[in-house]
Amino acid sequence: MIEPIYALLLTPLLAVAILAAVSNYRVGAAINMVASGLSCCAGVALLFVERVRGDLLIIDDFNIYLVILTTFVGFTTSIFSASYIGHELETGRLTPVFLRFYHALYQTMMGAMTLALVANNVGLLWVGLELATLSTVVMVGLYRTPAAVEAAWKYFILGSVGIALAFFGTILVYLVAQDVLGQGLAAMRWDALVREAAKFDPQLLSLAFVFLLVGYGTKVGLAPFHAWLPDAHSEGPTPISAVLSGLLLNVGLYALLRFKMVLAANPAALDVGKIMIGLGLISVVFAALMLYRRRDIKRLFAYSSIEHMGIITFAFGIGGPLANFAGLLHMTMHSLTKSAIFFVVGHIAQVKGTQRLDDIRGLSTTHPTLAVGLAIGVFAIAGMPPSGVFMSEFLLISSSFPHAPLLTAILVIGVLLAFGALVLRLQGVLFGTPSGERGAVRATYIPLFIHLAIVIIAGLWLPEPVIKWFRIVAAQLG
Amino acid sequence: MLSFLLLYQDRITATLNVFALQSVMLTLAVAWQAYSQGAPHLLVTALLALVVKGVVIPGAMHRIVRRLEIHREVEQVIGGGPTMLAGLGLVALSFLLVLPIGKSGRALTNPLVREDLAFALAIILLGMLMMITRRNAVTQVVGFMSLENGLVLAATGAKGMPLVVEVSVAFSVLITLFVFGLFVFRIRERFDSVDVGALDRFRGERGEPS
């Protein structure tokens, strides 16, 4: 039997090779699903084998949970994507040639993201993220409408500048580490970096982090560097919006958190927490205000992603076991809920033939199942009980209030503003005079309702092992 | 190393030829690094820089420019003078930022490495400046490439950094050209212009579907 970690990395690689050769889109979609499912199994199997800790790869409590989350959402999204693209072919927005391309790229992106997650080497992490970014750039531009090309171009320029700066930061980290750890691969290993961080030169380390923050912060979509995010989300195919929002942002944040752990181990270096709190708050308030003026349904939820990334960054910035716990939980819940929302939004946009909020009316009478899915999703993402998002937000606010009452107040205002905006928009979409055709939907509801069920169950009752696990990770993050 | 100073001046009024020249200079710098560090694998990086960035990419870009017939226009958002000043400011900033670091004595004790890093940072910042001040898609690409040159310089200056990284950088540049080329042509196809400003009307909220 092969090691799950290699299965995890090799499955997407093989899938890319096969998918690039398969021209039938149905077969391609099936292979895509099978490959994603296998990756997901490999991810879960990681739980039951010994932890790997090599020169290049690492599996620890922190990334194992993100690997499982990533592969799981990747799997459900591939199911959704199979039903989504069939419709896109019929309407002629995509051709089979592009679909071949699309499936291969989808697996490239999934493989690159898992590579970034399991890398024990700051360079390898960077390569993984860069590869994932490049593949999404092409997918965003897949429709080749002027708006899609502009979105992809913007994403590409901002993404590559971000990734270039992150690379410079990586070089600086290496430079700072090589004096202590010696030359070669040893000075790029996470575990070694964290262990020896106290001996590093604080000035250079802080400088490195500034570059890393701007670089990977661009990936996360934090407020000053977020400009690419709404465009990329709204113009690409919806399955891509789902994985972008639910996964790629997480991986960017994961990179930042790893470096935060390194800096936290060096008392003389910059206090990273404060910067992250600041950026997080700016993102939350800014995105919440922007939510009110949206006219495109996918853009609306893209801004909501910025808001939630802000909340998570804020949580990790506050630090401490409780806030970190809340941050981890929120990361999971946001991924599941947001991808579920994008699944339902994808189907809505298909049946209504438009993404404009003004033209999507009376969904509850024309397509009741979609309407119910959207309503549950929106209430969950807005933080209503009994969803898991409510629980993580509640935890975060109650844990950060004693430390920083004023900052928490700003956060609460931001969250409430966003809540108002989302409900306001939802009302228009669900009720009102029905618009558009009543065409039947051929959609798979399975991924959507699996995600929503997990989110709601997590809000009501979190299994004991999961809690214990999150606690350990939260303690590691410091 | 000092010859980079000349490039700062030239680059503000950059053309593809200057980019090629810069890449050749990069090659020399990297080769010099390979010699002084006694690391033969850096010569591979140098050769890559020479062939890919010094010859192939500028050549390909020239072809793109000729085919699109856009070599006349070098549109700038900010005029030449202020850009020069901003560039000088950025160079000063990067030197002020990097040079004092070694003084505390714990890291970067070798002054050469420090200077190398300062140069690299200056090139990266100038590359960004160029991307910001030019509106033409092609010149933005050149700006990005020179940014990447700065990265390579920094990476090779870091003694003993594994080859993995250099290969990945070279690789990424290739992909970059591929994707950029694709985009340039797509933009051309859609707008009959490579001016990024033409894309502006789609910015922000999508008005009417066009």
Number of helices, counting only DSSP H or I runs of 4 residues or more of chain B: 7
Order of helices and strands of chain B: HHHHHHH
Number of domains of chain B: 1
Number of strands of chain B: 0
How many strands appear in the DSSP assignment of chain A? 0
Return Rg of chain A in Å.
Answer: 21 Å
Secondary-structure-derived class of chain A = mainly alpha
In round numbers, the mean pLDDT of chain A is 81
Fraction of residues in H or I helices of chain A: over 70%
Q: Assign an overall shape of chain B.
A: flat
Instruction: Determine the mean pLDDT of chain B.
Output: 62
How does the major sheet of chain A shape up?
none
Question: Can you offer a commentary on this structure?
Answer:
The complex is a heterodimer of chains A (478) and B (210). Chain A has 478 residues and is mainly alpha-helical. Chain A has a domain at 271-478. Chain A contains 19 helices and no strands. In chain A, α13 (320-352) crosses α19 and α15 runs antiparallel to α17 (405-430). Chain A is globular and about 65 Å long. The two termini of chain A are 37 Å apart. The mean pLDDT of chain A is 81. Chain B is mostly helical and 210 residues long. In chain B, 72% of the residues lie in helices and 0% in strands. In chain B, α2 (16-37) runs antiparallel to α3 (41-68) and α4 (80-98) packs antiparallel against α5. The longest helix of chain B is centred in the last third of the chain and has 29 residues, at 163-191. Chain B is flat, with a radius of gyration of 18 Å.
